[in-house]
Amino acid sequence: MTTDFAEVFTVSVRRMVPLLRSKGLGFGFDCTTSPISLPGPEPLARSLHRVLMSVVNLMNAGSFQVRAAVESMGTADECVRIEATGLGQVSDHQAVDRAMLELGLVPQAAYRRHDEQVGWGQCPILGAVVDLRVLHHEGLLLSMTFKLDAAQAETTPAPDAADAGAWVVNADSFLARAWSKRFRRLGWLVSLFDSCGLAVDHLRSRQGPLPGLLIVVEDGMAKPDTAVLLSILRQEQTRLIYAVVAGSCELERAQGPPGFEVRVLPFSPHDMQQFTSSAAAPRVALQPWGGQQVELPPLILIVDDVPSNLLVGRAMVEAQGYGVHTAADGFDAIASCRECAPAAVLMDLQMPGLDGRKACAALRELQREGAIAPFSIIALTAAWSAELRTQCVQEGFDECLSKPIGLQAMGRVLRRFVTLH
């Protein structure tokens, strides 16, 4: 199968955003690559997860921005450069040394200035050249440069919003700056509002035309009041987007707030192209952007030592439209994930041999090493308690749920943790 580089890159960054939010870091994203078809997404996904998560863990406060661009090498192959810039407080020298050791980077004392750590190396998965520079009182800069053995997909001219209005509500300053730059490249006139109330006030003032695109960013503290915006814009051709982070509870529902499409942050180039095409020609069917869009159902791995639980779990998951693999214990789960990384794992906690908590720890370590692709791990247990849930999340699970779990609850949790596109 083939897929587009920009989609794999965007999904990899989407997996990183919840960690950024939990650390209170501002976040920016950009991707200016043209469509590039990859023979398979997993090596790139493993490499990006391994490197980017290690670097994010070095940031204690401030902001983190990630971008990807293509550099011409004068050949049929493309050289891709990924840069991550962290501005603010960085972990101590020992933590940076550990991160460089994990990534296989060799410290470069000859290039080191006062209070700066520099490491160079090569990613064992992609062969990418990795350069990490940490200046402890200012931040860090990571670069990954690699040649893709890939085919350039057939491209069409980028759509132009022709000065249509794009309104962005609830975005923090870092996200707003990144979006403004990306939308303006596609011909949008961007307006920023700190709340739905301010956007409603502007609509009621009748100052200027109505927007062609309205994006409301999910607020982790309080649910934005989108009802009034919908009541004003429902008769217009405004496209309404509700933007959430991966793992948001909003993804549990089959749809978002009434009248809104739910999209996961950050937006991919394909998302941006769709938004812009809608503004340029609202009634024209959208064409895929760049590389072939793969429509295989996401694969879910169910891990349980009780055969009847595996049978029931398989039936419930398949009823939601997902593919299913099963494993009888932690050892089988690890072997299955090494062979074929799933979109998510439903893991029983109490099993003979290797139990669910130890299996989760082993899988997370493999992901940190880049040996397997990243995915969500959800614990299932008949002994659920709030204290146990907290412990599981601290140990690396994305969620811990009580079993038996109903069909509708199963659908909600899978939508929440599998939806990355």
TrEMBL record:
Keywords: Phosphoprotein, Two-component regulatory system. SUPFAM superfamilies: CheY-like. One of its GO terms (biological process) is phosphorelay signal transduction system. The modification 4-aspartylphosphate is found at D348. Signal peptide: none annotated. Residues 299-418 form the Response regulatory domain. This is Response regulator.
